[in-house]
């Protein structure tokens, strides 16, 4: 349900911005990039603070804070009258972010490490299932009732998430006193492979930048491929959700496979595959070709971020999991800032097709980085 709520509004965000003023194509691309990335800029700053609090008070408190706060903010987005109000609310949304990352940390600490790949794969399946249905539902609702009603429905869904989390999520957690908390320096001195952990943080940033470089322009690209004819909102939602179908199928299987053959190997294979999928996206001539390639990208998505999270889980002591996952979320958020800005900038200079080429280059840089940080290192596998 959280995945549904977070993805419900994304397919038409650029189209919604277009209704808030009279913008040129360049201005629309710019404001779309700013609106997408503003949330994640704040998330990158506040995540370590929430992570420290999570290690002291527990992860359940954090998912309650995130779901309730996001419900209020997203509901208010349906009432804005200009793009600046929308950007301000997106900034505030970043303060209340962290539901998925804290759910991941909670699962990581509640699950035996030998099964962490499988458990996180299942959790990703849940969030991706929501991400799959969210754009379809959002596109349909926006097409029937308009963009603003969709924000109100999103707020209601998040309130239900809050209630379900409050009554049905249980955590076995021993509070840590403030004076007993380790500093960040002490945490990294305790880790067996600090180079690997930091390497995974940077990998998360680049993966997220690659995924989100396309987000601000996807609906605009679909509109261009359709020559501004047809139900653009709904079709954009379909194209946005297609990777979720593949991820839904592949994530649990790849998680189990990674536990067997090595999660770092799964990560490298997925990065190589992504390079060869992004490049043809710049050559498509219709939405069906774009949809087919995005399905293949969904398979690589099923491997990449869960693989990073599994590597972090298997190489981090349980008492530091919340902090490490919060640092990883900060890097993920920074990637979500960098990605849309790359997408909106490149599309303004080279048109939409150039975004996919630049994304392929970014994934190639990520592959080189992963090979460097894992070179000569046996990634710990828990038997």
UniProtKB/TrEMBL annotation:
Residues annotated as domain Major facilitator superfamily (MFS) profile: 1-378
Entry-linked PROSITE patterns: MFS
Pfam families, A to Z: MFS_1
GO cellular component, one term: plasma membrane
Domain of life, per lineage: Bacteria
Protein's name in the database: Major facilitator superfamily protein
GO MF terms held by the record: transmembrane transporter activity
